[in-house]
Amino acid sequence: MKKYILFLLFPLFLLGSNTARKNTIYNVYEYGAKGDGVTNDQEAIQKAINKCKGTGGTVLFPKGKFLTGQLQLGSDMTLQIDSLATILGIQSDEEKEYPHHKINTLFPNRMLEDCQRRLFYGDHIQNVTITGKGTIDGQGDYNKWMYVKDLGTEKDRPSILAFVASKNITVSQITLIDPACWTQVYIESDHIKIQNIKVDSGKLTPNRDGIDIVDCHDVLIENCDIKSEDDGICFKSGSEYGCKDIVVKNCVIDKLNVNAGNAFKLGTDGLGSFINFDVSGLIIKNVKQNSAIAIESMDGAVIDNISVSDCTITNSGQAIFILLANRNRTVPGRKPRIGSISNIYFKNITGTDFTQQYPSIITGIKGHHIQNITFENLNFMMKGGINTTDQTVMEYDGKYPEGSKFGNTNAFGFYIRHTDSATFLNCSIKTQLPDSREWLVQNNVGQITIK
Questions:
Q1: Which among 340, 399, 397, 345 is positioned nearest to 364, based on CA atoms?
Q2: Is the CB of residue 86 less than 8 Å from the CB of residue 66?
Q3: N or C: which end of the chain has fewer CB within 10 A?
Q4: pLDDT tops 70 at residue 19
């Protein structure tokens, strides 16, 4: 009888032990961190992380300023950054502070040459949360990170957050400021939640995107406030894994009136796919000369079933830019190919105070057409003011694509070319200033429906 009772109590003891571990707090001060903003706390913080990983416990950053280089995260853990805590990325180009790591992914990925340095790095991990109401400051205005042309690529400047081949990652509540490169990047990772965060890249130099999702499945981005010098929220594909099953909703994207980049973007890197996107409730502003919403298949990407609804655009150069083309880029083991763009649906989009006289441009290339695109309840008040109608519109020239490079076409609202079918339902496209151009010009389009 006593043995039987002990047998029942033993699993209860294990359960209690596991629960206790999950509730354990690993305070970085207890592992030697100074939190004075001057001392390098990298070693002390990494000790706390190493102790916590695998336990389900929490690494706590209380009030303080914690200076550090790269920190390697582990599975089954939470980072809690309190409201009076700031983590500072050390301004150093030394390898010991930000070691270069090429990513290891399931498929050959063109991104392995980029994003080789990070402040927080999760590599093949799972069940990680970064939260709290504190701040991570990349201190990206360091002199050696400011001159992009001297560095050549993004590989030598650290992102603030980077996850590769990881699962069940949640980033919430925190503020990310002044990255040295892409603020945060998620590569070939699944089940990602980015919620209620603030990003401010500052007006530094190019390649400081707000959020980059590269070949990820099951992603939710919601209620985020993004101020970005380059692309605001950008989905990329560097491998056959592609991006699939994505929800983005109720985010503000402010491009800070900087020339580089677009606000919401699929591409430019697009080797795999972008499938099943539900995008809604975006407030897009201050894009200056480029596109509020850009969808690009340049490297063979299959883009299909994309819905964008209930968005407002102000102070942008161009509302929508969609391009199917061929840059002849690929990865080892795969021949270059031309992709496809199909079943794109825009609904309830308002655009005002455009800074340029560009129309929205929808174009494939000869022999490769965009298929089935619908615009419903668009209300655009374009800038207008052009009195000529003889503009020629270039075909894609193989260079880095931007809608602004097509210039002022012979349409003020939409220019559509190499497209099988396009539908406009209950759309109002007008100009502030008198304009001699038609609102819609089509070239090599199978069917246009206007109701």
A1: 340
A2: yes
A3: N
A4: no
* Residue 112 pLDDT: 73
Residue 10 in 3-state DSSP? helix
Cα–Cα distance measured from residue 198 to residue 133, given in angstroms and rounded to the nearest whole number: 10
pLDDT score for 5: 41
Give the amino acid at 217.
H
What are the CA-CA distances from residue 370 to residues 206, 304, 343, 352, 451 (Å)?
Answer: 30, 10, 9, 27, 21
Mean pLDDT of 99-115: 82
C-alpha dihedral, 295 to 423 to 276 to 334, nearest 10°: -50
What does the pLDDT average to over 285-313?
Answer: 97
CA 95 and chain centroid, separation: 27
pLDDT score at 6: 42
Listing DSSP states for 383-433 in one string gives: EE---------PPP-SS---GGGG-S-SEEEEEEEEEEEEEEES-EEEEEE
Residue 323 · residue 296 · CB < 8 Å? yes
What is d(CA 177, CA 256) in angstroms, rounded to the nearest whole number? 14
Q: pLDDT exceeding 70 applies to what percent of the chain?
A: 94
Helix or strand run (H / E) with residue 221: strand 217-222
Q: DSSP letters along 240-295, please?
A: TT-EEEEEEES-EEE-TT-SS--SEEEEEEESSEEEEEEEE--EEE--TTSEEEEE
3-state secondary structure of 439: strand
Distance CA 190, CA 164 (A): 10
For residue 110, the model assigns a pLDDT of: 78
Q: According to the model, what pLDDT value does residue 220 have?
A: 98
Please indicate whether residue 5 or residue 251 has the higher confidence score (pLDDT): 251
Report the mean per-residue pLDDT for the chain.
93
Per-residue confidence (pLDDT) for residue 151, from 0 to 100? 56
What is the DSSP track for 329-347?
Answer: ---TT------EEEEEEEE
Residue found by looking up tokens 């519109």 in the block: 393
What mean pLDDT do residues 311-326 have?
97
Q: 89-123 burial string, b = 16+ CB within 10 Å, else e?
A: bbbebeeebbeebebebebebbbbebbbbbbbbbb
Token readout for 67 is 């200076």
Rounded CA separation 163/260 (Å):
25
pLDDT attached to residue 1: 41
